[in-house]
Design a protein that fits this description.
elongated, two-stranded antiparallel sheet, Cytochrome Bc1 Complex, Chain D, domain 2, 8 helices, 2 domains, mainly alpha
């Protein structure tokens, strides 16, 4: 068997390759540190990321303090509030739904004429297409003149929805239920109560009762704006 002959040129080439591997290995200070980066801006953006600190000292041109001043959240715009500031916040879980149904009984805003008008306006925009203008689940998407919808929307005039607590309705409006998407990004907390009040007024009509700014004979879960403690 002929021995393998290694020329000096091949030896130097092999030595260079081994040296290269050893050099790269030496650039790994530890398991949690990748060592040096050839082009750090390919992995770390030099741009300011909105509401997120991605500061990386090797490719930023300002100090971390100055970077955070521009990148991190500012004070909210006047008249707005974040989800965490929703005074009636319950998580989007079945446990959260159950808690809202059990704990959020009384409406947090009174029944007002303006609120009912606004509730009707918002209901017709977001809800009537499925639930119908009367709240009976016969919206345009399920009527014969509108088209077919695979799932029958909820009929709010049924006793199970009339007896549903305000918290149950509030949670469904904010997060959705079954095939219905949530409207938490479209209706602020006050508007959700306006929609609930309007739904209650539709339920009251079916039951021959009154749900208005003057009187509520449908339930004990909302106080009319003109309610007098002397009554």
């Amino acid at each position: 068997m002929n021995p393998i002959k290694i020329t000096s040129k091949k030896f130097l080439t092999l030595l260079s390759v081994i040296s290269g591997f050893l050099f790269l290995a030496s650039c790994q200070p530890g398991d949690n540190n990748p060592g040096y980066e050839y082009m750090p801006d390919m992995a770390h953006s030099v741009a300011y990321e909105a509401n997120y600190s991605s500061y990386y000292s090797l490719n930023q041109f300002v100090s971390e303090k100055d970077y955070r001043k521009y990148a991190m959240p500012k004070s909210p715009v006047a008249g707005t509030r974040s989800m965490g500031q929703d005074a009636y916040y319950y998580p989007n879980t079945e446990e959260g739904r159950a808690r809202a149904s059990a704990e959020l009984i009384m409406a947090k805003t009174p029944i007002t004429e303006k609120g009912l008008e606004r509730g009707k306006y918002l209901f017709n925009i977001y809800c009537a297409i499925c639930h119908g203008e009367k709240g009976n689940g016969e919206g345009y998407l399920v009527r014969e003149d509108g088209g077919k919808f695979p799932a029958q929307p909820a009929d709010f005039t049924l006793d199970k929805f009339i007896n549903a607590t305000n918290g149950q309705l509030y949670h469904a409006i904010k997060y959705g239920k079954n095939v219905m998407a949530g409207y938490g990004d479209k209706l602020n907390p006050e508007e959700r109560w306006d929609v609930i009040h309007y739904i209650r007024s539709l339920q009251a009509k079916v039951k021959g009762k009154e749900y208005s700014a003057n009187k509520n004979t449908l339930n004990d879960w909302a106080i009319p704006a003109h309610h007098s403690s002397a009554e």
